[in-house]
């Protein structure tokens, strides 16, 4: 069977759903192809289950940090209730609600495996073997996501390791869990299982959270140890074996042997581009899809008349749901504009470009403690040749943080481009700091001069007052030097570093 439509989207994860919706809103006929669950990895096996698994123990820890509430929070975490709440949030792994939404907005769903069959053609193979060929008048969008990488460690693939799906869909937490990796998945899952009472061992080759400021990973190592986990840095797993008694034996490079009941592999992702027919349009199967800022795949097939787009994880620009959905809005609106002859806005920060992917990607790792960052780290900014000023502030100097929780431990950093006078990076580490990140994202995207930020007054006594402390640490042109904070002097660990300085100056 052959069917013509305006736009075909392969992959109905959060990103595919969004691009389909924007193209549909422009008046185009859209068919979306999905071979598993509408809603994708994020809804059933990634963001949603991981955050619901984390939330209950985080709420309990939060209560225990506040006298009065702490006395009331004397029981143990109810793990079964946590798992039931997770099941509710993943709709018991049913996509009926998501399919109803597609119906309600008029996006046609083709269930089956989609693959390209030359320019503008997509073959959909259903589970019964029947095929439909879709011919797209305007565009095909690839939003097929990513799969976990299982590294070539001797014996690992044969030892029935967990990847992220097995961890987020757990029904009975193991007694002992070894976690290989030091990124977001490893640390969030280590936090979940340590909260459940599992004996967790994190095995990381380097430090933790390599893409963030170093103090973020250091805080999570301390936080996990505080939950009873063992965090081993600078270790290499060289051999893994699942024994007949079902135990997993992990051998490290120095010969040490660890034993666990399950091993979670969290060592990054690879693109879902095998079996996608890429070779029929001159592209390499199994590779990430390289796109320009308008999400068009850089390929000869797009040179004459653009038609092939890639959004979300599969283009490797930022493996995050919110950033993929941002790309989807730009690409969906662009497809609509191209199809209906409306003006294209392709200049940086235009409606049809994903400019923020380069400089303003927010990421929150919901570990113990939370780590939120956006933009550049100090080191990455310097590596890119910028002259930077760095302000560091301990949350101990923020009344709102102290009121939020006794002994609030956390730290914030602003990275300022010394020539432009604008914020280019921010990091917040501590309990419940995730909501602070969006203000930094706005400052970076808006290129707000730091001098103007003095007029953006954070309410007292909120954690947002950390912004005021950060500005004080940077100093205000036109103010007397050494002006102290109104309600509480900056702590000794508050300070700035210019590129000439070695250490933050108190
Ligand atoms: C454990 C974990 C936790 C995470 N937590 C967060 C978080 O808190 N916040 C955040 O922003 N990001 C988080 N992420 C990342 C986030 O899950 C991804 O960035 C997001 O799912 C990418 O969306 P996507 O639509 O590009 O891909 P996916 O969600 O993977 O969706 C792709 C869809 O395409 C379908 N598909 C693939 N190939 C075909 C084909 N040939 N034919 C038909 N259908 C096909 C798949 O079945 C799937 O439904 C997390 C990731 C993991 C692993
Ligand atoms: N809260 C969130 O937003 C969130 C949560 C989870 C995942 N994610 C996204 O999902 C993606 C995947 O996460 P991830 O943690 O799997 O990947 P990652 O790339 O963030 O981290 C991979 C980790 O594995 C280590 N590693 C790589 N190869 C290894 C090997 N052979 N042996 C031992 N260690 C090895 C790396 O050093 C790194 O620490 C990330 O890009 C992240 O953006 C986001």
UniProtKB/TrEMBL annotation:
It is an enzyme of class 1 (oxidoreductase). Residues 497-506 have a biased composition (Acidic residues). Residues 6-323 form the FAD/NAD(P)-binding domain. Residues 361-467 form the Pyridine nucleotide-disulphide oxidoreductase dimerisation domain. Its cofactor is FAD. The keyword NAD applies. The keyword Membrane does not apply. It holds the Pfam family Pyr_redox_2. Gene3D superfamilies: 3.30.390.30, FAD/NAD(P)-binding domain. InterPro entries: Class-I_Pyr_Nuc-Dis_Oxidored, FAD/NAD-bd_sf, FAD/NAD-binding_dom, FAD/NAD-linked_Rdtase_dimer_sf, Pyr_nuc-diS_OxRdtase, Pyr_nucl-diS_OxRdtase_dimer. Its EC number is 1.-.-.-. GO terms for molecular function: oxidoreductase activity. Residues 479-490 have a biased composition (Low complexity). Residues 479-506 are annotated as: Disordered. SUPFAM superfamilies: FAD/NAD(P)-binding domain, FAD/NAD-linked reductases, dimerisation (C-terminal) domain. Keywords: FAD, Flavoprotein, NAD, Oxidoreductase. It comes from the Bacteria. Belongs to the class-I pyridine nucleotide-disulfide oxidoreductase family. This is Dihydrolipoyl dehydrogenase family protein. It comes from Agromyces lapidis.
């Amino acid at each position: 069977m052959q069917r013509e439509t305006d736009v075909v989207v392969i992959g109905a994860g959060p990103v595919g759903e969004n691009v389909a919706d924007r193209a549909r809103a422009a008046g185009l006929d859209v068919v979306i192809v999905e071979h598993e669950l509408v809603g994708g990895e994020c809804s059933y096996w990634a963001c949603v289950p991981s955050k619901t698994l984390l939330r209950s123990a985080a709420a309990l820890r939060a209560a225990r940090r506040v006298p009065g509430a702490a006395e009331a929070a004397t029981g143990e975490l109810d793990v079964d209730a946590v798992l039931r709440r997770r099941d509710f949030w993943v709709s018991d792994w049913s996509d009926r609600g998501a399919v109803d939404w597609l119906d309600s907005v008029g996006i046609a769903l083709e269930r089956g495996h989609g693959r390209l069959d030359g320019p503008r053609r997509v073959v959909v193979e259903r589970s019964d073997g029947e095929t439909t060929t879709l011919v797209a008048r305007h565009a095909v969008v690839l939003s097929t996501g990513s799969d976990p990488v299982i590294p070539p460690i001797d014996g690992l693939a044969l030892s029935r390791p967990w990847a992220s799906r097995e961890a987020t869909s757990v029904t009975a937490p193991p007694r002992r869990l070894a976690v290989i990796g030091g990124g977001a998945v490893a640390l969030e899952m280590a936090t979940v299982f340590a909260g459940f009472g599992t004996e967790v061992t994190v095995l990381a080759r380097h430090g933790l959270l390599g893409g963030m400021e170093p103090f973020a990973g250091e805080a999570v190592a301390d936080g996990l140890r505080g939950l009873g986990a063992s965090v081993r840095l600078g270790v290499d797993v060289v051999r893994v074996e699942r024994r007949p008694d079902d135990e997993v034996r992990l051998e490290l490079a120095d010969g040490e042997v660890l034993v666990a009941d399950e091993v979670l592999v969290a060592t990054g992702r690879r693109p879902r581009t095998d079996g996608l027919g890429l070779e029929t349009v001159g592209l390499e199967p199994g590779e990430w899809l390289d796109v320009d800022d308008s999400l068009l795949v850089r390929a000869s097939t797009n040179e004459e008349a653009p038609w092939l787009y890639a959004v979300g994880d599969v283009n490797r620009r930022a493996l995050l749901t919110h950033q993929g959905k941002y790309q989807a809005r730009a690409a969906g609106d662009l497809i609509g504009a191209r199809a209906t002859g409306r003006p294209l806005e392709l200049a940086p920060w235009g409606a049809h470009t994903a400019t923020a992917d380069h400089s303003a990607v927010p990421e929150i790792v919901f570990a113990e403690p939370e780590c939120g960052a956006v933009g550049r780290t100090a080191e990455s900014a310097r590596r890119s040749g910028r002259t930077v000023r760095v302000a560091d502030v301990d949350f101990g100097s923020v009344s709102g943080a102290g009121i939020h929780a006794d002994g609030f431990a956390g730290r914030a950093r602003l990275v300022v481009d010394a020539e432009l006078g604008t914020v280019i990076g921010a990091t917040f580490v501590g309990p419940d700091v995730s909501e602070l990140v969006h203000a930094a994202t706005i400052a970076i995207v808006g290129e707000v001069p730091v001098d103007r930020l003095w007029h953006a007054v954070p309410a007292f006594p909120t954690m947002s007052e950390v912004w005021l402390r950060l500005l004080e640490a940077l100093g205000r042109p036109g103010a007397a030097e050494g002006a102290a904070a109104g309600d509480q002097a900056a702590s000794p660990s508050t300070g700035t570093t210019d590129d000439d300085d070695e250490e933050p100056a108190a």
